[in-house]
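Q&A log
Question type: sequence-to-structure
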Amino acid sequence: MTSSSGSGQSAVRMFSILEVLSNYPKGVCLQEISAQCKLAKSTTHRILNNLIELGYVAQDTFTLHYRLTLKMFELSSRVVNDMDILSIAKPHLDRLSHLSGEAVHLVVQDGCDVVYIYKADSGVSYSHMSSYVGLRIPMYCSGVGKAILSTQNEAEVRQVWSQSRIRARTEYTVTQWDAFAAQLQETRRNGYALDNEENELGIRCIAFALPGINGHADTAFSISGIAVRLTGSALERAVELGLATRQDIMRSMGN
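Response status: OK
Response body:
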């Protein structure tokens, strides 16, 4: 084995450990990390010690569990903070959350998924959503994903669909291509997409794409709340607020 291939293998092992740790914000034991990464305990322990020295991992002195530090967040924040769309959209999304009384999210497409890059929560919403900055979810079962895909051509949409692991995340998830394509058509007609408890049971989202000058979008935002509350006149008001907010953001972007 050459030194370059050895270095590559070490990098793969390190990132696999980081990914496991990201699923355990309160910490996880060495044995569990080792098992999930399919690495020997001695190898796992050595890599963890290196990550501790670099400041990316901390170990609880009482439980001996390992967890990520905020250094990983600091690195990702530098990237996110450089995204013009975030700095432009943030004040508009904060205002939207305040006016709607619901949580508002901004996402960016990454392959077949979307990644949350901002979350505004007015504090009025009583929904207990599992969303957080950095969360990655599939496009096919999310309102924001469908909003983005509605601006793309059929080849791009089919590629996302074919490369996604299509499964029912809830009883309402659409898992058939024809039904999904019909949803995108409706999204194009209405100017917004709906996630009717398709990704998370009990949560409804109204999503709006933020296309560029060419009409193609890779970012979107959503208003999310408890499904039984976001209905009727409340849903209509959320749609109106969302459409107005999109217009404001697009104007601020110069589109």
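Response note: The chain has two domains: 3-69, 77-253.
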